[in-house]
Amino acid sequence: xxxxxxxxxxxxxxxxxxxxxxxxxxxxxxxxxxxxxxxxxxxxxxxxxxxxxxxxxxxxxxxxxxxxxxxxxxxxxxxxxxxxxxxxxxxxxxxxxxxxxxxxxxxxxxxxxxxxxxxxxxxxxxxxxxxxxxxxxxxxxxxxxxxxxxxxxxxxxxxxxxxxxxx
Length: 167
Known about the structure:
By secondary structure, the chain is α+β, with helices and mostly antiparallel strands. The chain has helices at about 10-15, 30-40, 70-85, 155-165, and strands at about 5, 25, 45-55, 60-65, 90-95, 95-100, 105, 115-125, 130-140, 140-150. Strands 1, 2, 3, 4, 5, 6, 7, 8, 9 and 10 form a 10-stranded antiparallel sheet that branches.
């Protein structure tokens, strides 16, 4: 069974949500992790904004997702469960291109916000495997998904934590 996540297209969120990739996985339990690694929101946020930045020897994708009240715990729980169930790796298709995600290794997540989790993995597409570091940050009903290749600069994470903590 394939689990597919395609962004909803409506109002202001539609223009921003279109920036999210189309993600499919064969192991449905891995879908939340595949989405988070690929720059797609987990669940059905009310509004999303995607930013991509290249520099400091890394490419960083930041997805901010505003959820309706009560939905954020479900999204965070789904990612946490996927980290446990899919730690040995999985295969995903992102915008039609197959990706092999290697072992998922949990990492320390930043403090100073409501909730956070982080991990690193190796993702192989048509070329050599690329290291990816990811963090998901929660403040209230907002999640920030950050992914960086080959690394996630601490300055990017610190800046996002400061913005979320101030909101």
